[in-house]
Specification:
The protein is an alpha+beta fold. Helices cover 47% and strands 22% of the residues.
């Protein structure tokens, strides 16, 4: 059995909001497997639905760029070792250049992208320029991921927290004006804040629904061991519908007006501008999502930098 450390307990507590002893027990029961521990707590009714953003830890920033015609957008995450470097103007300028490179690129994966000629100096590749930046800045860096969106309608971007979270939205719009762009920017802010997984219900894979149903079923039986199965089934349906609303963008309560869903808000905007506005796709990057952070003593770090 894997040893359960205080750090693991702290991380699970931050991910789920469950109590310290409950987290410790969950990790012990699941042999230290973080994902299984989350499910164990959910089944016991001790953790909320799986909204964990992953182990947000690595430093760096997310950058976005939109083409002049507003129909193509790119988003990129570049990681650094420390927050100090992430706030460095040279690092930020480099990340902006990487975003521009992605916008013009035809590469579909990271290997092809790194092998491309660098737009600002075609005697070098993207990988060579990255290596050069690492030498100049004096800290390990990586281009972690990128995505590009092209739309018949319009693409809108939003950056939150100086690059901590970035969002791209692809929308179909019969009318494209400042009102439409502002509305889509509001929706992008919603995505940044509440991290939906899908645009609408019919995008959700059946295996995801089945998995969530099993967790909710176990949870309901643990909470109500004496209730008959038919009552438990009704409870599951209600809970599942509530959970799926949180996962689907258009079903979420609109953060700027709780009386509306995002879908109803876009319907209002569509009536106002005289043409349908509909979100087709979105991409949300959060810096360091899913990455482990190297724990270091700050004093040791400073001493090493001085040397």
């Amino acid at each position: 059995m894997a040893a359960v450390t205080a750090g693991m307990v702290k991380e699970l507590r931050e991910m789920t909001g469950a109590g310290m002893m409950d987290c410790k027990k969950a990790l012990a029961q699941t042999d230290g497997d973080m994902d299984k521990a989350v499910e164990f707590l959910r089944e016991k009714g001790l953790a909320a639905a799986s909204k964990k953003a992953g182990r947000i830890a690595a430093e760096g920033i997310v950058a976005t760029i939109i083409s002049e015609d507003g129909k193509t957008g790119a988003i990129v995450e570049v990681n650094s070792e420390t927050d100090f470097v992430a706030k460095n103007a040279q690092f930020q300028a480099y990340v902006a250049d990487v975003a521009s490179q992605v916008l013009a690129s035809k590469s579909e994966d990271m290997d092809a992208f790194l092998a491309e000629k660098w737009a600002k100096d075609d005697s070098l590749t993207v990988a060579q320029v990255l290596s050069s930046q690492i030498s100049v800045i004096g800290e390990n860096m990586s281009i972690r991921r990128f995505e590009k969106i092209a739309a018949d309608g319009v693409v809108v971007d939003y950056i939150h927290g100086g690059g901590r979270i970035g969002v791209l939205i692809e929308a179909s719009a019969e009318v494209v004006n400042d009102t439409v762009k502002e509305a889509l920017k509001n929706v992008a802010m919603q995505i940044a804040a509440l991290a939906p997984k899908y645009v609408k219900r019919d995008e959700i894979p059946q295996e995801f629904i089945d998995h969530e149903t099993e967790i909710l079923k176990t949870q309901a039986k643990n909470e109500n061991p004496d209730k008959p199965d038919n009552i438990v089934e009704k409870m599951i349906v209600g809970r599942l519908n509530k959970e799926l609303k949180e996962f689907c963008l258009v079903d979420q309560a609109y953060v700027k007006d709780g009386d509306l869903t995002v879908g109803k808000y876009l319907e209002q905007v569509s009536k106002e501008v005289g043409g349908k506005v509909e979100v087709k796709k979105f991409v949300r990057f959060e810096t360091g999502e899913g990455l482990e952070k190297k724990e270091e003593n700050f004093a040791d770090e400073v001493a090493r930098q001085m040397q």
